[in-house]
Every structure is written in C-alpha cells, then in structure tokens.
Amino acid sequence: MIPNPIMSQNEYAYPDRDERLTSRLIQNYNETRWNLEEAYVLKKVKDTVLGENEKLSVSLDVGTGLGRLIPFLLSISRKVIALDADLWRLEEAMKAFNSNSSVFFLWTRSSRLDPIPPGSVDFINYSHVAQHVSPHEFLETLGEFQRVLKMNGWVLFLTTHSEGKEWFLVSSEDGAEEIGKEEYEKLTLNPVPGKLPVRKFNVDSLEKLLKECGFEIEWKFYYHVKPEFAPRVELRNTTGAIGDPTELLESSQKDVEHIMKNLKSINSNEMEARRKALDIAMLLRKG
Ligand SMILES: C[S@@+](CC[C@H](N)C(=O)[O-])C[C@H]1O[C@@H](n2cnc3c(N)ncnc32)[C@H](O)[C@@H]1O
Question: Which atom of ligand 1 is nearest to the CA of 126?
C-alpha cells in the first residue's frame, strides 16, 4: 500500500465504519432485491464498456470501503487500484484481496490522486461516496478524475438523489433527520462516529455540473426502488454468490425476472423513476 503523506496529518474516519447504519437501511428495502437491482446496473455497465472487447487495463475504485465492488472491477479490467480515505476500512479490504496480485491499494482522499499519473486510467468506480463528501471535495475529485482518466475513459457514478431540490440528511441510530447545508459540510469535514452525513443530489443540477466538468453522460438509470413501488415476491436467497455481483442475475427464478422488468418499466419515464427509486447510476465518459 502507498500511503499519502497528507493523510497522516488529517486522518479521516468514515462515520459508519462497521456499516451498521447502512445495513439497517438496506434491510428496510429487502436486501436481496437491493443487491439484484445493483447487479442489474453493473451488468449494464459491463455490456457497455466491454462490448466485444477484452478487459480494460486499469480500473480505479475510489472510496472502495470494504472492497465490496473489487470483484466486479476485476471482471472488467486486468488491474484494480482501490483507494479510501479511511485507513481502517482500507485495511479490511486489503485483508480480503491482498493475495490477489492484480489489486493494489492506496490510502488517500479522492481529491488527492497524486500518485496516479495523468491519462493512465480506463475506468473509475465512484460508488456511494459523493453523497458523503463536502461539496468542495466533490468538485476537486471531479477535477482529479479528468486528470487521471484516459481520453474517452469511463466513470461509473452511483449516488443517492432527491425528487426535486437538493437536500441534506444526517443518518444515525435514531433514523434520518434533515439538516442544513452548513451542518452537512461541518460533518463531512469533522466526522462524528455514528452520524453519517448524506447529500441527496438534484439530478438536473448534478448533470449540469458534470457536463461543465467535461463529462458526457452515456446513460443514467434509477435503481433501488422504494418498497411501495416494488412487486411483492418471495425470493429464495440469491445473496450467497461470492465474486462478481452480476452473477446474481444468473438465478433462474421467475421472481428475479419480475424485479428486473419492474426496474426497466420504472425507468421508461424519468419523472416516475425519480419518484420511485432511491439511487441513480450514471455512466460518464471523459469528453
Ligand atoms: C458508503 S461507503 C461506499 C463503499 C464502496 N464504494 C461501496 O459501494 O461499497 C463510502 C466510502 O467512501 C469513503 N470515503 C469518504 N470520503 C472519501 C474521500 N474523500 N476520499 C476517499 N474515500 C472516501 C469512506 O471511507 C467509505 O469507505
């Protein structure tokens, strides 16, 4: 692992280190369905970026956390560089993947990708990180993505959105509470254990910003359908699959097909999708 010297001066601790708050949220939405919907998005990404081609050369997993999506990145690229600002979480990911000679680890913030040379990366996975960082750091991060990506390189940007206006929350053991932008910024800059700041993006302004920063939006897709808009199905457990999460879709269960059909149908109307789904996936291209 390559340490970044600035990190030792300003050590970051993710407020939901053990994933307790996140797991609680996922349970409300039915974990199996939650995983399947994400697997569908990842499959769409794989089909777009690989096409008929062989694997990409280098992928970056920005805010890898416990390394949950490293197997997916290994399925599309020969080398993966996984980084995180929280050393404890990065070490957990290292324990799981250290024996894999195609995975490299870097302790740094997303806005400080200095050890990575310009124009050297094919694909960046930025999964559920933007909603926990300060607006300033988010902007700097987009600048770093432009610098390290090859021309026409990709970013998979997964985050949470609101139906209309941007809003900010703090998630804790007692549930989620709306907060102001200033408090959100304060919590991102000075993390408090057990108080997870969450930014819900306004998709229109987010898209505008991404375009201003030089990204083209190849496609977008809303996922993690709210329970009241999801078909009632009795799924046998499909979460046991280890490795590439897109393998979850290989289940022959009729109900899996049913979930995917509902997801596609919700996405046929953007306003409806915004109302019915919690998260958004955007596949970006460096223009
Ligand atoms: C919700 S978790 C997502 C983890 C992983 N990407 C996934 O989808 O499972 C957010 C992760 O982003 C990391 N993180 C937060 N701010 C960061 C920053 N500025 N730079 C790099 N990582 C950051 C946190 O430490 C945490 O591991």
Answer: 6
pLDDT surpasses 90 at 235: no
Of 132, 196, 198, best ligand 1 pocket probe by most atoms within 8 Å of the beta carbon:
132
pLDDT in tens, 202-217: 999 999 999 999 999 9
Q: Which phi and psi angles does 50 have, rounded to 5°? A: -90, -40
Of 31, 70, 72, 129, the one to substitute when testing ligand 1's pocket (max ligand atoms within 8 A of C-beta) is: 129
Q: Which SS3 state, helix, strand or coil, does residue 130 take?
A: helix
- Strands 56-62 and 77-84, bridge-based pairing: parallel
Q: Give the CATH class of 2-286.
A: alpha beta
Pairing of strands 149-160, 121-127: parallel
- Tell how far the Cα of 278 is from the centroid of ligand 1, in angstroms: 18
Would the CB of 138 count as within 6 Å of ligand 1? Answer: no
Torsions phi, psi for 279 (to 5 deg)? -120, 160
Q: The tokens of 209 are what?
A: 């910003």
The alpha carbon of 62 and the centre of ligand 1 are apart by a number of angstroms equal to 7
How far CA 54 is from CA of 41, 47, 57, in Å, comes to 20, 11, 9
The closest-lying atom of ligand 1 relative to the alpha carbon of residue 188 is 16
pLDDT in tens, 74-88: 999 999 999 999 999
> So what's the pLDDT on residue 253?
87
Higher per-residue pLDDT: 221 or 236: 221
Residues 22-71: pLDDT tens digits?
998 888 888 889 999 999 999 999 999 997 778 999 999 999 999 999 99
Q: What is the mean pLDDT of residues 239-264?
A: 87
Domain boundaries, the chain: 2-286
13's torsion region: left (phi>0), alpha (psi -120 to 50) or beta? Answer: beta
